[in-house]
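Section 3.1 - Work completed
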Amino acid sequence: MHSRDQTIYALSSGRPPSAIAIVRVSGPDAAAALKALAGKLPSPRMATRALLCDVKGQPIDDAVVLYFPRPASATGEDVAEFHVHGGRAVLASLLASLSAMENLRAAEPGEFTRRAFEHGKLDLTEAEGLDDLIHADTDRQRRQALRQLKGILGDKARDWRSQIIEAQAMIEAGIDFSDEGDVPSELIAPALARIKRLVREIQEVLAAEGRSERLREGLVVAIAGPPNVGKSTLMNQLARREVAIVSPHAGTTRDIIEVQLDLDGFPVTVIDTAGIRETEDPVEREGVRRACARAAEADLVLWLSEADDAKAPNDSGAPVWLVRNKIDLGRSDAPGVHGPKTFAISASRGDGLGELISALVGFAEVYFGATEGGLIARTRQRELLQQAEAALTRSMVAIGDGEELAAEDLRSAAFALGRLLGQVDVEDILDVIFREFCIGK
């Protein structure tokens, strides 16, 4: 493991070439590195033009530099930023100069954000929100991640934890003054009232039924059916580009092809699977097996067929819509004959695709539900809130058997919220969370 005393650097903007690139440096030697390359240390938080030169005095680039002294910086450490022209040669020269300096090293994924977390610039829920914001593919995902980054869940958790600790103090004071007549009841009654209120508030947050987590992960739609019915053509139409090979020969698709879509702001993963049929080809047979397994895991299955009397399989745990393709070839069009979730389309010509896409949007709206007010974005957050709620509920029951038991349950609830915020005993999950970040963030 690298030392936290070292100064780190990384490209914090997009891949070169680009008009402008930003290289960020954070740590105790950030100021020295900036002065060595720019010739002087600029005024704090003031963009300053400077000619960057390497250790041999050779010019690197005409750049803009900034200096953010600790603790008023993004990471809580001294931070320097180099805004240079985004050519590969410029960046290579700048990064080589930084790497040659003593006590400087390239940053690992998420290390800037981890240092910000360790210096109290953001809690763990905000760090997770930042990661979600970086990886947001749709506008709805962006808005949800921004709520996390603003610390709405973290603020609530801190307030809940503070109230739990106060209730715990009241109950423990009751234990200490148990020989003082009516003092314990005067302390325990308001503590119980506070606990009941906290349980209701946490239950309201948990009542979102995981919809915010669903928005983060996205809806999975599998296109399945016999070979050569137009699954790949439909996939290309939905993606509006050629992502799958279209061929008149059966068995062309032998592996699973996935494409990410933004469907009216909802994140949707569409899967094109191998044609399902009996086959002696071992490679195609493996493709059929994977297709069946992936369809079984999907949230919605579009079963494609050419026949008017086709029936969708009912062995999938997910809803199955029957989509009859190739109506442009003169087959009779009888939508709805097999139920309300039957569609007649021409994937090659586009007939009926508008109705199918509108139905998919409607399905996504129901699937995701009202996510705008949701605070929970990850399973980890939900599980810890459930642990806190369960411990609070136990404490109300345990108070009848003794204040000591109730106080212990309150300690468990406060501990769970501390883990949610990253304040206690989270070393085992920090590496998992921060390595999901990109380099330079």
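Second construct:
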Amino acid sequence: MRDFDYKKAPTKLLTPEIVHLLTSIHEHKGKQELFIEANADDLTSFLEITKIQSTGASNRIEGIYTSDKRLRELVQNNAEPRNRSEQEIAGYREVLSTIHERYDHISPRPNIILQLHRDLYHFSESSIGGFYKNSDNVIAEIESDGKEKVRFVSVPAYQKPDAIKCLCEAYLKAWEDDRFDKLLLIPMFILDFLCIHPFHDGNGRMSRLLSLLLLFKAGYITELA
């Protein structure tokens, strides 16, 4: 079982360049409320645009496409999906809305991650939503000469529930201790989540949704959620 180190590992990330970037980000974060107050209507419009763009980009990661027109209809108008790809997009729309509306009451815990993954497949006929992988596999790519190259091997299927549990516990403990900048902890959590690769499908989309959730909980443009 991999050890999820959220006590010492963050200190190795505090290079001068990263510290400078964190400082700059926090300066902009401090100006959020002024921007929101002065441009509330414009920012609300931008938020609707980003929901559409995020949904499209996140699904394209896993080879799920539809036309721009249908994407807008699915996200903005809650249109009913017509095919498998649109079912996947509609599921992403539902989870995205849940996070925007209820992020303050959602914590990155195993049961919550399973529920969000279940909802990701709400419109799908697939039965994989809300369940961890039950078989081992490797993450591979096909090179130009046709040979398969293994990118990485995730934890065995039987260890995935415990791995997610340990990951969430380590992350939440570090979050509550408040010793390290949350902008360091968030990408660490997402990378560990992807290395566990807990689900048969939807890991990429879940990583983007969890990133949004954690950034909202860290106070980034939460007023617009």
